[in-house]
Amino acid sequence: MNATIRDVARRAGVSETTVSLAFKERSRISEKTRQRVRHIAAELDYVPNEAARALRRGSPRTLGLMVNDLTNPFYGRMVREVEAVAMAEGYQVLVSESQFDPTRELGNLDRMLQARIRGLLICFSETTPETVPRVRDMRIPCLALDTFPEGYEGPHVVNDLAAAGRLAVEHLLAVGCRRLALVIAGSVGARFSSFARLESGFREALRVAGLPCDSRQVISAGWGIEEGYAAFAELRRQAPETDGVLCGNDLCAFGLLSAADEAGIAVGPELAIMGIDDLPFSALPRLNLTSIRQPDRELAECAAQALIESIEAGERCSVKLSLAPRLIARSSTLAKTSVL
Amino acid sequence: MNATIRDVARRAGVSETTVSLAFKERSRISEKTRQRVRHIAAELDYVPNEAARALRRGSPRTLGLMVNDLTNPFYGRMVREVEAVAMAEGYQVLVSESQFDPTRELGNLDRMLQARIRGLLICFSETTPETVPRVRDMRIPCLALDTFPEGYEGPHVVNDLAAAGRLAVEHLLAVGCRRLALVIAGSVGARFSSFARLESGFREALRVAGLPCDSRQVISAGWGIEEGYAAFAELRRQAPETDGVLCGNDLCAFGLLSAADEAGIAVGPELAIMGIDDLPFSALPRLNLTSIRQPDRELAECAAQALIESIEAGERCSVKLSLAPRLIARSSTLAKTSVL
DNA sequence: CTCTGTAAGTTTGACGTCAAACCTTCCTTT
DNA sequence: AAAGGAAGGTTTGACGTCAAACTTACAGAG
C-alpha cells in the first residue's frame, strides 16, 4: 500500500541503497542524485517503514517516559513537551505511569525494555527506591526528569529544589511567619528523596535567618490531595505552633489547605501555605495558592533533547542540570501584617 | 542480546516455525511439543521481537489515542485506562494531543498513520471539524471516545450527554433555580458538537418542566478555565437574570465560578453553577463544585477493548455505546431555600 | 499390499531497510 | 604509461518472524 524504498529506487533508476543514502546527510552521493531521489520520494509519498528500520537497527526510534500520575497536570505537561521534542526528532514516546507503585513501575520498565526503547526519561518517585539500581544498570541512556532520589548519581534535568526551599523560607519569613514547617513525601529517617535537597535548602535558609529547625518541623506526607489533607492533623500534633508551611507539591497543599479551612484556621494570616508546581488550578481565586513555579517546559525540552542527543551519539547521557525555580506569591501566604 | 526465535528453536531441537506455532492457540502442533517449546522459551526469556512482527504483518501492535489536552486530568485518566487495557492485550499506545487545534490534530493523525497504527481512539473536539471526514475515511478501525460531533456517524463509546443535560436541569430546578443557562463549547448556529445532545437534553428537560428556553440561554465558550472566566461576562450580558448554570466541563465551571466570586455573586444561593467531569479538584471544599461524573473508567475500558477486538477480527468497529452519567451534588448548587 | 488421509513438522521466502564489501570510472601523480 | 586514489555507485546479505507450500510418518480402508 505505502511506497517502499524499492518503488522509489525503481522510479529513480538507482539502487535501493542509493535511495537510503539520499536521505542521509554527508553521505557519499552526488548532490544531483540526492536531490532527484528526494524529489521522487516526495512525489511517491515515500515514508521509511519504521518497523523495517527498527528490525535492521535492532530497536525502534522509541523513547520511554515514566511519570508518576497522569491525572496530575504537571506530568501531563511533561508528556506534552517530551512528545513535542520527540516528534520533531522523529521519535515515538512510550508513556508509562507508575502510580507511585514500585511493582507497577518495575513492570512498566520491563515492558519498555521489551519494546526496545532507545532511551528513558524517568520521573522518580520517593516510593519506589527499587527502581534506582535498575535504572542505573540499564544499558540505554537514562535521564532523571523533574526530580531524583538520594542514592541516584546519574544524569538529570531537575528543578533546583534546594533553591526552592530557600526561596520558600525567605518568602514565608518576609510575610511574617516565624515557625515554619515542611510537608514532604518520603519517610522520616530514611528520607530517600530529592526532597532531601528541598529540606536542606529549607533548613539552610532557616539557619541563615538565625531560626531553629528541628525534626518536628518536617512532616511526612504523600503527593496527593488526600495525603495533604491528612498531613494537617499530623502538623497540628507535631508542630502546633506552626504559622507557615511549604508543601512538596500543589496537590498536597490543596489538601492541607482544605483541612485548615475546615479547622477554622485563616489560611494566610494564621497559617501561610504554599506549594510547588504552580498548577493552573493554583491561580483560581478560591484557592489562590502561593507556589513555586518550575520551568516545566524547559525542563522537559532540555531533558528530551539531551536524551536524544546521547542516543544518537551512542553514549551514556551525562547532563546534570538544575533549573532555577520562581516564586509566585498569592494570598495563601498573605502577609500577616498586611490589611486584607 | 535478546533471545530470538532461532535460539529457542535450536535449543528445543525444532524448527523456527514450530516455535512460532507453539505460541498460537489452536495450531497444528502436538500438545507435548507446545509445552516443551514454551518451557524452553520461558527459560531463555524469549520475547518475540515486535519490530520483526511488525515488518512481517505490515504494522506494529500499536493503537493511537488522540486527546485534546494532556493537562486536563480527565484526559489523563483516559490515557491511563486505555494504556492499561492495551498493555494487557500486548498493544502499545501512541498518545497524541490536539490542543484543540485542527492543524495540529490533522498533523498528529498523519504522524500516527505513518507510524502504522492499527486502530484509533479519538476524543473529538468541537474546534476541529476537519477531522471528522478524515477519520471516517481511515481504513483502520476508529472509535470516538468521550464525545463526538454532529456530523459523525461512526462507532463510539461516549457519555450520554443528553442524560447529563436532563440530570442537570432536574437538579438545578430541584434546588430552586428558575432561569437556567448552558455554557458550552462550539459556536452558535452551527453548534457542531456532541454538545448539541447536551443542549437538547437540557432543552428537553426544561420543556418537560414547562419552562421556556430561548437561544440567549445558551452561551458559547471554550473548554478551559480562562474561557469559563470570560463566559461569565457574556452570561451577564446575554442572560442577566440567570440563576443556574451548567458548564460543559469542570474546568470551564471553575473559571465561571471565579468570575462570579469576583463580581460579588454568591455562588449557590444567587447563582448555582455546575460542571461535567467531576475532577478530583471539584471535591476541594473551597471549590465544591456540583458536577456530573462520567464513568470514565468504563468509558476508556470499553472503548479500548472494543477497538482491539475489531482490530483482531479485522473488521470495522461497530460499537455504539452511551454510558449513563451520575450527578454529584455539592455546594456550588446549594439550595436557595436551604439554610447555610 | 497399495492407496488415501491426516497429523505433525520442516523448508523456503519475503516483509523493508541499510551496512559492508565490492565494482567502475575517471582523475592525479610520478 | 603504470600505479594509486577518490568519487559515486551497486550487490549482497541479514535483522526476526511467520505464511504458504512442501515433506514425512503413520493409520486405516479397500
Q: Descriptors for this entry?
A:
homodimer, 340 residues, alpha/beta, 6-stranded parallel beta sheet, 6-stranded mixed beta sheet, 12 strands, 42% helix, DNA-binding
Strand count, sense and barrel status of the largest sheet of chain A are: 6 strands, parallel
> Strand order of the main beta sheet of chain A, please?
2-1-3-4-5-11
Structural class category of chain A = alpha/beta
| Poorly predicted residue ranges of chain A | none
Descriptive report:
Two copies of one chain form a homodimer. The first copy, chain A, has 340 residues and is α/β, with parallel strands linked by helices. Helix content of chain A is 42%, strand content 16%. Chain A has helices spanning 5-12, 16-22, 31-43, 50-57, 73-88, 102-114, 131-136, 161-174, 195-208, 225-238, 250-262, 296-313, and strands at 62-67, 92-97, 119-122, 142-146, 156-159, 180-185, 218-221, 244-247, 272-276, 290-293, 320-323, 326-328. In chain A, strand 1, helix 5 and strand 2 (92-97) form a beta-alpha-beta unit. The longest helix of chain A has 18 residues, at 296-313. The radius of gyration of chain A is 25 Å and the shape is elongated. Chain A starts with a helix and ends in a 12-residue tail after the last strand. The mean pLDDT of chain A is 91. Chains A and B meet through helix 4, helix 5, strand 2 and helix 11 of A and helix 4, helix 5, strand 2 and helix 11 of B. The first copy, chain A, binds a DNA duplex (30 and 30 nucleotides) through helix 2 and helix 4.
